[in-house]
């Protein structure tokens, strides 16, 4: 059996999830006719404490549709230098949305310092202010490299943004990992955010899809942008059914992924030549000596153990990896260095 720690996106639908997909009632969602998509959107909006939801094919498109719903051409958004939205989405906000990113250096815990946020907000208006892009939006990410952002920080940052007339967006690709790790509700984790993008295709184990939640007017705008961006899908209830199944069966078990990541971190910490840089929720970061990276990766791959071994490696646990797989992984790395 392969143990794949490259990402939590590599999961295959379980037999029961496939069964739920097969049985899904579907319609043409571009016409608003797909009952399963509507059910998924409503269910996530309700538990996130928002008015409406929108099912999109990817988290990238969900973030982009949200940014375009919040910002007009020439508006600016504040975002982490290391945020997925800024760094890993091809610059879509600028390329397709005509939105100017204002990156802010992330703290190691993923937060953006309040004083830096405050200083980056431009004063738009007559006179000098006409020089600037209009700062419209603050975008944060939770979890960030697996780390759960402190509730107090999220509250302070979103309050600051709202006080200064900005809207707020959360890239909550893995927000359910935060929910499970801190024992909160989804609504609590989404508090203070005008929109939240949630991935179903990461730790939740669905094959495809993200849901954007927010107010009705905002989701209506995002709905139009989804169509423009090519994300209007037809009988997508087959995919939404996987998401609904995941919401019911795959949330509490994220705690197992967190336990397995802790096991992996402990095992690596106990291995010569390996330095654990950190671990949080379902991620572990570790340093390997340069000269060992390529040979170690080949050694692991030959044994059906998949990971990207770099000087700063990331390992991600998920529902297709169990405690035994983690033990095999640790033992193989120990064998290599022995
Ligand atoms: C995976 C991910 C996304 C969206 O990715 P897609 O592959 O487009 O679904 C967005 N933000 C973060 C933090 C992610 O990890």
UniProtKB/TrEMBL annotation:
Reported cofactor(s): pyridoxal 5'-phosphate
UniProt keyword Lyase present: yes
InterPro entries associated with the record: ArAA_b-elim_lyase/Thr_aldolase, Low_specificity_L-TA-like, PyrdxlP-dep_Trfase, PyrdxlP-dep_Trfase_major, PyrdxlP-dep_Trfase_small
Xref: Pfam families: Beta_elim_lyase
GO biological process terms held by the UniProt record: glycine biosynthetic process; L-threonine catabolic process
Residues modified to N6-(pyridoxal phosphate)lysine: 202
An annotated GO cellular component: cytosol
EC number(s) stated in the UniProt entry for this protein: 4.1.2.5
Keywords: Lyase, Pyridoxal phosphate
All residue ranges annotated as the Aromatic amino acid beta-eliminating lyase/threonine aldolase domain in the record: 4-287
Keyword field contains Lyase: yes
Gene Ontology molecular-function annotations: L-allo-threonine aldolase activity
Family in the record: Belongs to the threonine aldolase family.
PANTHER family: L-THREONINE ALDOLASE (PTHR48097:SF9), L-THREONINE ALDOLASE-RELATED (PTHR48097)
NCBIfam families attached to this UniProt entry: GntG_guanitoxin (NF041359), PRK10534.1 (NF007825)
Full protein name: Threonine aldolase
Native organism: Armatimonas rosea
Taxon lineage: Bacteria, Bacillati, Armatimonadota, Armatimonadia, Armatimonadales
């Amino acid at each position: 059996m392969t143990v794949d720690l490259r990402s939590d996106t590599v999961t295959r639908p379980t037999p029961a999830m496939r069964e739920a997909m097969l049985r899904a009632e579907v319609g043409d969602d571009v016409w608003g006719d797909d009952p399963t998509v509507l059910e998924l959107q409503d269910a996530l909006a309700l538990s996130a404490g928002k008015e409406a939801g929108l099912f999109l094919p990817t988290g990238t498109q969900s973030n982009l549709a949200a940014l375009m719903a919040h910002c007009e051409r020439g508006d600016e958004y504040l975002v982490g230098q290391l945020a997925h939205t800024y760094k890993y989405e091809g610059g879509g906000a600028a390329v397709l949305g005509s939105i100017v990113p204002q990156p802010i250096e992330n703290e190691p815990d993923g937060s953006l310092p309040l004083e830096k946020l405050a200083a980056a907000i431009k004063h738009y208006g007559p006179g000098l202010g006409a020089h600037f892009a209009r700062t419209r939006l603050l975008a944060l990410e939770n979890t960030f490299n697996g780390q759960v952002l402190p509730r107090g920080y999220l509250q302070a940052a979103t309050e600051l943004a709202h006080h200064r007339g900005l809207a707020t967006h959360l890239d909550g690709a893995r927000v359910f990992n935060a929910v499970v790790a801190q024992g909160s509700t989804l609504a609590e984790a989404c508090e203070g955010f005008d929109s939240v993008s949630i991935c179903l295709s990461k730790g939740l184990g669905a094959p495809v899809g993200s849901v954007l939640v927010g107010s009705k007017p905002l989701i209506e705008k995002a709905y139009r942008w989804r169509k423009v961006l090519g994300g209007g899908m037809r009988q997508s209830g087959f995919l939404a059914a996987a998401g609904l199944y995941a919401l019911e069966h795959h949330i509490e078990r994220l705690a197992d992924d967190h336990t397995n990541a802790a096991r992996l971190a402990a095992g690596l910490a106990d291995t010569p030549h390996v330095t654990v840089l950190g671990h949080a929720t379902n991620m572990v970061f570790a340093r390997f000596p340069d000269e060992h990276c390529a040979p170690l990766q080949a050694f692991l791959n030959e044994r059906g153990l998949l990971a990207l071994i770099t000087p700063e490696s990331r390992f991600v646990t998920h529902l297709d990896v169990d405690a035994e797989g983690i033990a095999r992984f640790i033992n193989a790395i120990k064998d290599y260095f022995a």
